[in-house]
Amino acid sequence: VVDRVLQPVTQSLAQLIAQDEQFTTLESMLSKAGLLKQLAEPGHWTLFAFTDSAFQKLDANIRKRLTDADTCITNVVRHHLVPHTLCSAPIVTHATTLNLDGEPLSLERRPEDGKLFVNKVQIVAKDIMATNGIIHVVDDVLMPDSGQPLSHVLGAHNLTTFRSLLEEAGLSEALDSTSNVTLFVPSEEALSQPEAVAELDKRRGDPAALRDLLLFHSTGPAVKGCDLGSSRHELKSGLADHSLR
C-alpha cells in the first residue's frame, strides 16, 4: 500500500531543462556544446544542473566567455554530465564518480544535516527523474580548470609570479583569449632562484625582451605530458624562429 498515485516518468532530460525557466543559461550552453539533442534521446545520464542564479555568481569575465561561442562552453557542460544514472540514496558518506571526460567528481553527504555536495558545491534539489536519467540541481557552477582562462588557472594553482609577469608584459589578455596553447610555467621556487631573479630584473626594463622570454615558454596547439612519450620532441615556441626540445 502506497500513500499516493505512482506517476510514470514521461519527459527526457532535455525536456525538463527546456521547460524550467531557472535553466535558460544551462539550456543555451548545452545546445552550443551539441549535447542538448543527446539528452533528448534514450540513455542513462546524470546531470548536475546549475541554475541561472548560480551562473551569475561567476566572475564577469568568465560569464562573458561562456555566453559567447567559446570552446570553454563544451568543457564546462561536460564537467556537469555523468554517463550513467547516479541517485542520491547510495551516497552515505563519500563517493567518487567520473564525468563525461573521465575526470573525477567527489560526492559527499554531511553527517550532521544530511546535505549533499558535489566537488564541495551543494546539491539543493536531488533525484529529479527523467526517461533517460536524473537531475541534481546545484547552487554553483562546477568549474573545471579546462573551463577557465589561463590567468585564472595560474592563480588557482598558486603560480602567481608567472601570472604577474604575463600581465606586466601585456600577454595575459591575449593568452586568455587563445583556445589552444601550452605553457611551460616555472614554479614559484624556480622564479625565486638568484639566476632567474637576475634575468627577470634585466628584462623588466625592456617590455619587448620580457615578452620574448615569456613567449619562449609557450607552444601550440595544446600538448599533454602523455603526448611527449620518451623520445625527443621539437616544438615550435611562441617566440618566432625558436624551438623547444
Automatic annotation (TrEMBL):
<protein>
    <submittedName>
        <fullName>Fasciclin-like protein</fullName>
    </submittedName>
</protein>
<feature type="domain" description="FAS1">
    <location>
        <begin position="10"/>
        <end position="142"/>
    </location>
</feature>
<feature type="domain" description="FAS1">
    <location>
        <begin position="146"/>
        <end position="245"/>
    </location>
</feature>
<dbReference type="GO" id="GO:0050839">
    <property type="term" value="F:cell adhesion molecule binding"/>
</dbReference>
<dbReference type="InterPro" id="IPR036378">
    <property type="entry name" value="FAS1_dom_sf"/>
</dbReference>
<dbReference type="Pfam" id="PF02469">
    <property type="entry name" value="Fasciclin"/>
</dbReference>
<dbReference type="InterPro" id="IPR050904">
    <property type="entry name" value="Adhesion/Biosynth-related"/>
</dbReference>
<dbReference type="GO" id="GO:0007155">
    <property type="term" value="P:cell adhesion"/>
</dbReference>
<dbReference type="GO" id="GO:0030198">
    <property type="term" value="P:extracellular matrix organization"/>
</dbReference>
<dbReference type="InterPro" id="IPR000782">
    <property type="entry name" value="FAS1_domain"/>
</dbReference>
<dbReference type="GO" id="GO:0005615">
    <property type="term" value="C:extracellular space"/>
</dbReference>
<dbReference type="GO" id="GO:0031012">
    <property type="term" value="C:extracellular matrix"/>
</dbReference>
